[in-house]
């Protein structure tokens, strides 16, 4: 490793432990460090023997209160390739009335002797709360509709690999903004990296108060995808949840696709305007709804690169939070 | 015959007097000096208010005696300067029968620290569908006059109309928890705005309250009945209430101490201590609520004291219980935000924390001016004392105290219920 630890990683709260709870915890240099280390990790991934001894003897627990095969597997591989002991625990759904509180559950797991807790929860703020209760490092692997920091880091990593520096590049993020934790982390990450961001959605899928938020944080809003595409360097399509489709947020899936889907016609318009433009999707995709097969599978698609980068970025995050900390503390 | 002499108290800001209390009734006011054999309460420099009345408490008994009991809630109330509290109906079982109401009344009398007046449910089981036995609760020993499904909104307009019409026969009042469940569902927990968007928390927009308040004042006008708006939280609701009063509609409204001070940005750390329903609002709403309390648009301060066991608050924010403690801090908060700032004088505090709530609730022995012949229900306040709130010092069984660590000006020195001192300086007498 060429990276030095003292420039690395995230905010500290309880007992000086470092956590990754929000991309807002990371400044430009820290994001840069994580992405640069991810590139080295990515190189290791290409080798026949992928395992590094770095986190031998350390224990990482993936505590997932919400199902997520791809994020959990990605963290699991990341830990294993760094030689950490990794276990996965599926928390049962939140028990709001009787029985164990979230604090009880988390303290029970932490009491087993855990170095890092990777937590996924359907409730916004869960990782933040957990970080105040335990002594382990906490990594937010997605909290409700709040944030998903490693997703934003891997998105940035993947886009940079194709586009070079994101400074001044125009990224359009399209879809269900209200219910997306990916968009919140990406807004923070892309802003720190100097990209120009436009969020595109029907008004019913934009969070309340986003006007003042956009003004404060310097991003743009649009209800017109066709007007945004010609200047986009990257288009990030968000999954539309099935349960939003029954007339509550927009009339029909068909109407959504016509208004906000990355259809073949729109793909052609994008390529005509900017042949180097790229397409991302955090997955899982609704093919034919928010993204046409041509857009998902073509040369301009980074969707599988995102998955591949996910492991490298999570290795980098685990490394910067855990490696060499005995010397530090 | 018990005798109590209170010396040198400033009667709601109108000048220092002595008060002689005999057998629970004020028998002399003026310069008394001494009364042989009387218990003496020196009150020089203190303000005497008619005993505080809280239109809105949750005492959790029956059902959640681990969070609060009628006895522990009564103790917290007495220490907070209250001589009467209304106990909301959302217990388990719900207070929706005469028997349930009488049980609450009796437990309150057994505790003997404040008058505990049960509120009756509007609908059976708070389900919002069928009227509870409103008339039988009124005819019971508990003499229930205030009805509320608080915690839930009586959202069906037809049910609300029938309830308003029905209680008119005995001059009852419906206290409405204004929350349109379609605009703010059960997961809504953060004022809808930029912050709810950033935090990814389900939004609870002001209009979900305002549309119900607007509907209910029109129903009150149509039925000629009386409606009370619980915990008003937005400037928009204030506008509606102000308009309705100008039309002569029989509407009253209350505001909580926390909505007079605390703002939505406290949710940024996802601390469920600050999770309350309706949610904390932005500063503009806080300012409008203070102004409305000062000008009389809002009639009363009511605590919405909502104790919760620790494990019911230690969930993820959206899963944690709604509510915060309020009985022990209410007077200090009102003193600090309304009196110290010049928005209300002590006579105004007497109005919004005693006489108005007593009138709204129909509690005849409370909220009376401190004059000869009135029951000796009174609260002595040190207007200059600075208190730093310590949640561990509470007499409540719960610790969900949003004021912990805050410094407030004005403190309850003593509480007197029908001539008996119930609390002194933060402890039971």
From TrEMBL, chain A:
Carbamoyl phosphate binds at residues 70-71, 120, 148, 151, 283-284. Its EC number is 2.1.3.2. Keywords: Pyrimidine biosynthesis, Transferase. It catalyses: carbamoyl phosphate + L-aspartate = N-carbamoyl-L-aspartate + phosphate + H(+). The gene is pyrB. Pfam families: OTCace (PF00185), OTCace_N (PF02729). This is Aspartate carbamoyltransferase. PANTHER family: ASPARTATE CARBAMOYLTRANSFERASE (PTHR45753:SF6), ORNITHINE CARBAMOYLTRANSFERASE, MITOCHONDRIAL (PTHR45753). One of its GO terms (molecular function) is amino acid binding. Pathway: Pyrimidine metabolism; UMP biosynthesis via de novo pathway; (S)-dihydroorotate from bicarbonate: step 2/3. Residues 168-321 form the Aspartate/ornithine carbamoyltransferase Asp/Orn-binding domain. GO terms for cellular component: cytosol. Catalyzes the condensation of carbamoyl phosphate and aspartate to form carbamoyl aspartate and inorganic phosphate, the committed step in the de novo pyrimidine nucleotide biosynthesis pathway. Signal peptide: none annotated. Residues 18-160 form the Aspartate/ornithine carbamoyltransferase carbamoyl-P binding domain. Heterododecamer (2C3:3R2) of six catalytic PyrB chains organized as two trimers (C3), and six regulatory PyrI chains organized as three dimers (R2). Belongs to the aspartate/ornithine carbamoyltransferase superfamily. ATCase family. GO terms for biological process: 'de novo' pyrimidine nucleobase biosynthetic process; 'de novo' UMP biosynthetic process; amino acid metabolic process. L-aspartate binds at residues 98, 181, 239. It comes from the Bacteria.
TrEMBL record, chain B:
The keyword ATP-binding does not apply. Its cofactor is Zn(2+). Belongs to the metallo-dependent hydrolases superfamily. DHOase family. Class I DHOase subfamily. One of its GO terms (molecular function) is allantoinase activity. HAMAP family: PyrC_classI_B. Zn(2+) 1 binds at residues 56, 58, 150, 304. Binds 2 Zn(2+) ions per subunit. Keywords: Hydrolase, Metal-binding, Pyrimidine biosynthesis, Zinc. CDD domains: DHOase_IIa (cd01317). Substrate binds at residues 58-60, 90, 277, 308, 322-323. Catalyzes the reversible cyclization of carbamoyl aspartate to dihydroorotate. GO terms for biological process: 'de novo' UMP biosynthetic process; purine nucleobase catabolic process. Residues 47-235 form the Dihydroorotase catalytic domain. The keyword NADP does not apply. One of its GO terms (cellular component) is cytoplasm. The lineage of its organism: Bacteria, Bacillati, Actinomycetota, Actinomycetes, Micrococcales. The gene is pyrC. The active site is at 304. This is Dihydroorotase. It catalyses: (S)-dihydroorotate + H2O = N-carbamoyl-L-aspartate + H(+). Its EC number is 3.5.2.3. Zn(2+) 2 binds at residues 150, 177, 231. Pathway: Pyrimidine metabolism; UMP biosynthesis via de novo pathway; (S)-dihydroorotate from bicarbonate: step 3/3.
């Amino acid at each position: 490793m060429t990276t030095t630890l003292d420039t690395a990683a995230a905010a500290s709260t309880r007992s000086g432990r470092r956590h990754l709870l929000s991309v807002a915890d990371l400044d430009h240099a820290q994001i840069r460090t994580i992405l640069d280390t991810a590139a080295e990790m990515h190189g290791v991934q290409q080798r026949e023997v992928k395992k590094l001894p770095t986190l031998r003897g350390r224990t990482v627990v993936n505590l997932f209160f919400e199902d997520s095969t791809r994020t959990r597997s990605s963290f699991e591989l990341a830990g294993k390739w760094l030689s950490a002991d990794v276990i996965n625990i599926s928390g049962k759904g939140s028990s709001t009335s009787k029985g164990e509180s979230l604090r009880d559950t988390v303290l029970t797991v932490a009491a087993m002797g855990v170095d890092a807790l990777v937590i996924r929860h359907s409730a916004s703020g869960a990782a933040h709360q957990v970080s105040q209760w335990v002594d382990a490092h906490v990594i937010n692997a997605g909290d409700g509709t709040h944030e998903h920091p490693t997703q934003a880091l891997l998105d940035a990593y993947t886009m940079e690999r194709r586009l070079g520096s994101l400074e001044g590049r125009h990224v359009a993020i399209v879809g269900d903004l209200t219910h997306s934790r990916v968009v919140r982390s990406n807004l923070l990450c892309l802003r720190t990296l100097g990209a120009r961001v436009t969020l595109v959605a029907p008004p019913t899928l934009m969070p309340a108060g986003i006007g003042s938020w956009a003004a404060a944080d310097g991003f743009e809003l649009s209800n017109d995808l066709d007007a945004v595409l010609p200047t986009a360097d990257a288009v990030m399509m968000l999954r539309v949840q099935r349960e939003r489709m029954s007339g509550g947020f927009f009339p029909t899936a068909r109407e959504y696709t016509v208004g906000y889907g990355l259809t073949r016609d729109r793909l052609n318009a994008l390529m005509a305007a900017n042949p180097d433009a790229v397409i991302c999707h955090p997955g899982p995709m609704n093919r034919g709804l928010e993204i046409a097969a041509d857009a998902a599978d073509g040369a301009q698609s980074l969707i599988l690169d995102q998955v591949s980068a996910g492991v490298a970025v999570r290795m980098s995050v685990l490394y910067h939070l855990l490696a060499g900390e005995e010397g530090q503390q | 015959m018990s005798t109590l002499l209170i010396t040198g108290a400033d009667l709601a800001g109108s000048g220092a007097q002595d008060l002689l209390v005999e057998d629970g009734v004020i028998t002399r006011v003026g310069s008394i000096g001494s009364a042989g054999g009387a218990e003496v309460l020196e009150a020089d420099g203190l303000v005497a208010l008619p005993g505080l009345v809280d239109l809105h408490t949750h005492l959790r008994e029956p059902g959640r005696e681990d969070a609060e009991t009628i006895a522990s809630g009564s103790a917290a109330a007495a220490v907070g300067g209250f001589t009467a509290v209304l106990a909301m109906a959302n217990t388990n079982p719900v207070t929706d029968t005469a028997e349930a109401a009488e049980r609450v009344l009796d437990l309150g009398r057994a505790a003997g620290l404040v008058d505990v007046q049960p509120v009756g449910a509007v609908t059976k089981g708070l389900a919002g569908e069928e009227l509870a036995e409103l008339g039988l609760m009124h005819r019971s020993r508990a003499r229930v006059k205030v009805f509320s499904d608080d915690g839930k909104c009586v959202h069906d307009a037809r049910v609300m109309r029938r309830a308003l019409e029905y209680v008119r026969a005995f001059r009852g009042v419906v206290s409405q928890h204004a929350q349109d469940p379609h605009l703010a569902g059960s997961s809504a927990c953060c004022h809808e705005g930029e912050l709810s968007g950033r935090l990814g928390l389900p939004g609870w927009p002001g209009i979900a309250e305002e549309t119900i308040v607007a509907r209910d004042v029109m129903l009150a006008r149509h039925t000629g009945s009386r409606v009370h708006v619980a915990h008003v939280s937005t400037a928009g609701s204030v506008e509606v209430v102000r308009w309705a009063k100008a039309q002569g509609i029989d509407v009253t409204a209350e505001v909580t101490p926390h909505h007079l001070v605390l703002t939505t940005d406290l949710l940024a750390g996802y601390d469920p201590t600050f999770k309350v329903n309706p949610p904390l609002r932005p500063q503009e709403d806080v300012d409008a609520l203070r102004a409305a309390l000062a000008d009389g648009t809002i009639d009363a301060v009511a605590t919405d004291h909502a104790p919760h066991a620790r494990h019911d608050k230690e969930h993820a924010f959206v899963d944690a219980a709604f509510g915060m403690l309020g009985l022990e801090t209410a007077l200090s908060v009102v003193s600090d935000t309304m009196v110290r700032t010049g928005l209300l004088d002590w006579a105004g505090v007497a109005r919004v924390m005693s006489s108005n709530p007593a009138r709204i609730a129909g509690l005849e022995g409370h909220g009376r001016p401190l004059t000869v012949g009135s029951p000796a229900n009174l609260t002595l306040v040190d207007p200059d004392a600075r208190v730093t709130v310590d949640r561990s010092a509470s007499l409540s069984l719960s610790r969900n105290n949003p004021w912990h660590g805050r410094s407030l000006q004005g403190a309850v020195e003593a509480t007197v219920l029908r001539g008996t001192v119930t609390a002194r300086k933060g402890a039971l007498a």
